[in-house]
């Protein structure tokens, strides 16, 4: 079985390729009526960017889940298995027993019985929206993804895609300052809904792929930026 990261790599790469090809088709029909041909360098640049960014986002989502675990709409955990039959209770003990206590009789070397007390079984209460999976953790993950996560992804995109296109460091810095605001505004038009779904119903190891699937349109937007 491939690891979750390997699966994420493969699925995200396929989705990024689809997004880039769609972007190239859109860009071609906007600018020209000639026969469409794939811009292989642009496709490779976008795929390399995706390969570099997937592990960063994979680690980021796991970090958020470790710090603020739980999801509001995950299924309830299955009911705990019934406790095993009670062990043999010694008839030799004269100690008063409290209701709910369990006494286990262990034969000693001399043939007499030694009685040990075991704590009664008390299953932990489980539920939706409580404790570790409550609204506080959801809101923390949501806000961090919209702020730190968004800034990180936008800056890395502009830096990586332009370095892959051969832009020097000074030019990359200027492009980050120029392009950050419009890309951030575009991201805020779709990312909040994606984040709400990710942190309520999607397991942590599938969040990067889920984001890529929901963001094919976003990938087209980024690819159109990269093609220019």
From TrEMBL:
Record's subcellular location: Membrane
* Compositional bias ranges of the Pro residues kind: 79-88
Segments traversing the membrane: 42-60, 142-163, 208-227
Q: How does it sit in the membrane?
A: Multi-pass membrane protein
Q: Which UniProt keywords apply?
A: Membrane, Transmembrane, Transmembrane helix
Query: Looking at the record, which segments are called Disordered?
Result: 75-94
Q: Which GO terms describe its cellular component?
A: peroxisomal membrane
Database matches in PANTHER family: PEROXISOMAL MEMBRANE PROTEIN 2 (PTHR11266:SF80), PEROXISOMAL MEMBRANE PROTEIN 2, PXMP2 MPV17 (PTHR11266)
Q: Which family does it belong to?
A: Belongs to the peroxisomal membrane protein PXMP2/4 family.
Protein's recorded name = Integral membrane protein, Mpv17/PMP22 family
């Amino acid at each position: 079985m491939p690891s979750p990261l390997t699966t994420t790599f493969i699925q995200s790469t396929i989705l990024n390729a689809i997004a880039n090809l769609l972007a190239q088709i859109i860009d071609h029909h906007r600018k020209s009526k000639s026969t469409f041909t794939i811009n292989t360098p642009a496709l490779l640049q976008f795929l390399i960017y995706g390969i570099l960014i997937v592990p960063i986002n994979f680690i980021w989502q796991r970090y958020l889940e470790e710090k603020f675990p739980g999801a509001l709409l995950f299924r309830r955990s299955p009911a705990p298995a019934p406790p095993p039959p009670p062990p043999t209770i010694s008839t030799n003990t004269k100690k008063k027993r409290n209701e709910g206590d369990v006494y286990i009789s262990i034969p000693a070397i001399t043939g007499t019985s030694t009685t040990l007390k075991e704590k009664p079984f008390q299953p932990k209460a489980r539920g939706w929206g409580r404790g570790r999976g409550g609204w506080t953790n959801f809101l923390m993950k949501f806000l961090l993804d919209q702020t730190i996560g968004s800034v990180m992804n936008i800056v890395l995109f502009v830096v990586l895609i332009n370095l892959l296109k051969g832009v020097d460091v000074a030019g990359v810095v200027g492009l980050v300052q120029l392009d950050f605001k419009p890309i951030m505004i575009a991201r805020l038009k779709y990312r909040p809904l994606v984040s709400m779904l990710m942190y309520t119903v999607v397991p942590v190891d599938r969040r990067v792929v889920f984001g890529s699937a929901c963001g094919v349109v976003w990938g087209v937007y980024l690819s159109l930026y990269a093609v220019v």
